[in-house]
Amino acid sequence: MDNLPPMDLMRSEKMSFVQLIIPVESAHRAVSYLGELGLLQFRDLNADKSPFQRMFVNQVKRCAEMSRKLRFFKDQISKAGLLSSVRPVTQPDVELEELEIQLAEHENELIEMNANSEKLRQSYNELLEFKIVLQKAGSFLVSSGTHAVSERELDENVYSNDDYVDTASLLEQEMRPGISGQSGLRFISGIISKSKVLRFERMLFRAMRGNMLFNQAPADEEIMDPISSEMVEKTVFVVFFSGEQAKSKILKICEAFGASFYPVPEDITKQRQITREVSSRLDELEVTLDAGIRHRNKALASIGVHLVKWISMVRREKAVYDTLSMLNFDVTKKCLVGEGWCPIFAKAQLQAALQRATFDSNSQVGIIYHVMDAAESPPTYFRTNKFTNAFQEIVDAYGVARYQESNPSVYTVITFPFLFAVMFGDWGHGICLLLGALVLIARESKLGTQKLGSFMEMLYGGRYVLLLMSLFSIYCGLIYNEFFSVPYHIFGLSAYKCRDTTCSEAKTTGLVKYQDPYAFGVDPSWRGSRSELPFLNSLKMKMSILLGVAQMNMGIILSYFNARFFGSSLDIRYQFVPQIIFLNSLFGYLSLLIIIKWCTGSQADLYHVMIYMFLSPTEDLGENQLFWGQRPLQIILLLLAMIAVPWMLFPKPFILKRLHTERFQGRTYGILATSETDLEVEPDSARHYDEDFNFSEVFVHQMIHSIEFVLGAVSNTASYLRLWALSLAHSELSTVFYEKVLLLAWGYDNLVIRLVGLAMFAFATAFILLMMETLSAFLHALRLHWVEFQNKFYHGDGYKFRPFSFATLTEDED
After folding, report:
1. 20 to 30 A from 791, CA-CA: which of 74, 120, 517, 803?
2. Which residues in 61-99 are b (16+ Cβ under 10 Å) and which e?
3. Coiled coil where (predicted)?
């Protein structure tokens, strides 16, 4: 067995702890090459320092600032509706300093263009509002010779904010206040957001105590807000009032509500003249705005060509400086010292990358690569591919494997989809899942480059899990002989027939066997018979126990291989042996009885056998005896199970105490560990208790572990009955939807009812059986692996190998 080649996934890669001494002039290039390689996990030697106390904090800040500018460019390109080039044109590589200058120039240019565009847009909006007010407010005004024109024009041109002079110059006119009396009727015309009109009118009425006239009309055009770039509905208003004090109140209320007010001359001729001037100026501004937008889009397009490459470059540079900040200067301040973990197989690749960095940076001193010993446990690293990665993620979600312990994902690749299929078995539903999985696999090259939603990303990541789940579902569905709950004579004729030729109803008279059993799976004649449910219940319940005991035994056997690999003979003698004896003395024996009963066709009551094995082990079995010597065998197995419990509980804590006493009282001397592999010789043994051995703590821990296993052997076996329960539920739900929805609708001679029934059946199948039942079976299979299987051997208290790699950088790290 020792000569067998190692399995890639069975145990994690062997790791080595290395120290790198890097000259300052080649440090940046060396870390960059290591990031491209992605096989070294750096250890943070400055964990006690804040980010602002580290050596390369200024470079990190510069990269962060450049990332901010690039995000600004990306937002601007997105708002402009342009697409940044996914495949940038080839251009010579630029240094970080040159890129920093370029980005600053581009940012200043864009900010200036945005400011100019915002000013022009604001002027355009004001003129557009003025034009709308002239058109709408003119209908409210009635000419009267008793009012001075200058008074009605209210001393102003445009009152909104500080734009009086700008707008006056745009219109090339100046209106000066008149000297007429203060007692005449006056008005203010303007425009306000439609959502504020009611509150605005109510406030005016209350402030003026009803001494005013308020008229309004909706604007024909929506006006763009220059800040939010959203189109806003506006309403034109005219307020008639009298007196200087009333004017002051109205202006303050207008200012509070953000209303803009514009002068509207009562003279029709003057109105038309101003309208023509405003329209002319609007046309000019529109041309100017279009030209500005074209110029801005051209500048953004030139940035977009290189944006992807710039983002990648800045992201890499920031990652390099973040990593350099984890290194320490040596005492001479001429070299950087780094430490980290790497797989042993990567040693040659790492040394080649470091030599290349020395050569490319023209350094006179090479980089020193030194393997060291480490007291801490190494990280766990499994080399996976796109097929095995999803199964490894399922295991890692429970806990990352301890360094070099057995990896459950080797077996999960088969057992997980199989146990799912036992609960989901229906080859019609399996075909539907298979089609979905094949679509995802066929489009994986396209989907892999897209940004998917959370649900779709999860589905895409588990596409190969879904593939195996569907294939095993088809297999189990053929065994159960269910196609959307309907049985078919696929593998020949049924082994049963009616008692005579006049028999027409098998549900009441029963069937007789007339030929060899059905070739594969459940005979279709069981469907609809009186004994269908008892037969299938018995079959699936016993099958669940057999599968559960087999998987739990496999878990215990893996604990043996773990103990053997780590050289822990204590765990083999006082953990593996009593556990395998206890489990099989009870539930292994039950599995044997199930198989014998199936083979012999006995009518023995297995419930009675197992109960009285404990209550009256010496009592005669009578008609429940399945084979000769069953009673003495039961007594022996019961005694073995009783012996196995103290065997698990007592010896190991006392042996650990003796080893500790001998080691520290000088009667024996242990060899000092000289490498990190020596540290892994005896896990879970005296090594853990060398410095601070607390016997009571060790004994309590062992007692908890033993009680947990004994109780877990019963509860875990019962837990596997979920395979039977969910399989029965899935089958019965399928039957209900088929008989009570599809067949019921098909019984009507009406096309509409049939189509409605078919649609309801399709909906129930898709959303309940293919989505909810799939999720339910998936979660239950997950539970069986995490709890019932993995707790027999899997510690799951390791930590993942996370190398410094450019390939794993994401947008979140900008």
Report:
1. 803
2. ebbeebbebbeebbebbeeeeeebeeeeeeeeeeeeeeb
3. 89-123
Q: Which long-range contacts (CB under 8 A, 24 or more apart) does 390-395 make?
A: 390/461, 390/462, 390/463, 390/464, 390/465, 391/416, 391/465, 392/9, 393/461, 394/465, 394/782, 394/785, 395/785, 395/790
Using DSSP's 3-state secondary structure scheme, residue 692 falls into coil
| Cβ(769)–Cβ(734) below 8 Å | yes
Contact criterion met (CB below 8 Å) for 304 and 77: yes
CB 798 within 8 A of CB 401: yes
Check residue 106 and give its pLDDT. Answer: 92
Q: In what order do the strands lie in the sheet with 185-193?
A: 213-218, 234-242, 185-193, 260-261
Q: Tokens for 569, please give them.
A: 């003979």
For the chain, the distance separating the N- and C-terminal CA atoms, rounded to the nearest angstrom, is 50
CB-based burial label for 508 (10 Å; 0-12, 13-18, 19+): exposed
Q: Which run of H or of E encompasses 304?
A: helix 268-324
- Residue 580 pLDDT: 96
- State pTM to two decimals: 0.78
Q: 152 with 118: CB under 8 angstroms?
A: no
Q: What residue spans of 366-426 are helical by DSSP H? A: 389-396, 409-424
What whole-number distance in Å separates Cα of residue 411 and Cα of residue 451?
32
Residues of the chain with pLDDT under 70: 1-8, 84-93, 139-184, 226-228, 498-510, 665-692, 811-814
* C-alpha pair distances (Å), 611 with each of 567, 608, 614: 40, 5, 6
C-alpha–C-alpha distance, residues 582 and 647, integer Å: 10
Q: For residues 703 and 646, what is the distance between their CA atoms, to the nearest angstrom?
A: 9
Using the Cα atoms of residue 255, residue 256, residue 260 and residue 266 in order, give the sign of their dihedral: negative
Give, for 372, the enclosing helix (H) or strand (E): strand 368-372
Contact call for residues 508 and 538 (beta carbons, < 8 A): no
Question: Which element (helix H / strand E) includes 36?
Answer: helix 24-37
Rounded CA-CA distance 787/784 in Å is: 6
Tell me, what's the pLDDT at 500?
61
Q: What is the 8-class DSSP label of residue 554?
A: H
Beta-strand runs (E) in 396-533: 496-498, 511-513
* Predicted pLDDT at 246: 87
pLDDT score for 691: 54
Find tokens 């410095």 and name the residue.
Answer: 691
Contact present, 257 and 192 (Cβ < 8 Å): yes
What is the predicted pLDDT for the residue at 666?
Answer: 53
Tokens standing for residue 424 = 């989901």
DSSP assigned state of 810: -
In the block, residue with structure tokens 């200012």: 255
Under 8 Å between Cβ of 170 and 216: no
